[in-house]
Amino acid sequence: MTASTNSNFLEVDTLDVCACTLPHSRDLNLKQPNGHPPHTHTPMFAPGLPYHLRALTKLRCKIFQTTYNPQGLRTGAKYLRQRLRGPSMMAYYPTTLNLSRFIRQNPDMEMVNEDAEERLVDVYERRKRGKGAPKKAKDKTESRRLQKRR
């Protein structure tokens, strides 16, 4: 079998599989399970030998640009061909507005982020009661961690 590509289509010059080379059912001396001779009509495509069918399948895969998988193994090709779901899922949910960033980018609008202000007040009150986060050490001698080891 030889195939040559020319521009956008596949041109097949010769084929190894030809209907004239396949054995005819009457030439095989086959008998049906009930003992009767096989049908005498001429089939459109006589059953071929396995290697003929394998060559035909290889050619079909080459022409239609599919994967040749004679063992029928699970390749996941069905899922890889599917359209990706991510972009449509992202388009479904509306974009969230980051209010803090918007206020920082537009200081001339004089907006106030009430949640951030409330958090700062809570932190200030907790620190007054001694429940806030510890102060950061400026050098290793001020570190509480180093003091515990001594």
Automatic annotation (TrEMBL):
Cited InterPro entries: Ribosomal_mS33
Ribonucleoprotein found in the keyword field: yes
Keywords associated with the record: Mitochondrion, Ribonucleoprotein, Ribosomal protein
Primary location group: mitochondrion
Basic and acidic residues bias: start-end ranges: 139-150
A family per Pfam: MRP-S33
Transmembrane segments: none
Localization per record: Mitochondrion
GO cellular component, one term: ribonucleoprotein complex
Region of interest: Disordered: 123-150
Biased composition (Basic residues): 126-138
Residues annotated as signal peptide: none
Family note: Belongs to the mitochondrion-specific ribosomal protein mS33 family.
Name assigned to this protein: Small ribosomal subunit protein mS33
Species in which this protein is naturally found: Laccaria bicolor (strain S238N-H82 / ATCC MYA-4686) (Bicoloured deceiver)
Organism classification: Eukaryota, Fungi, Dikarya, Basidiomycota, Agaricomycotina
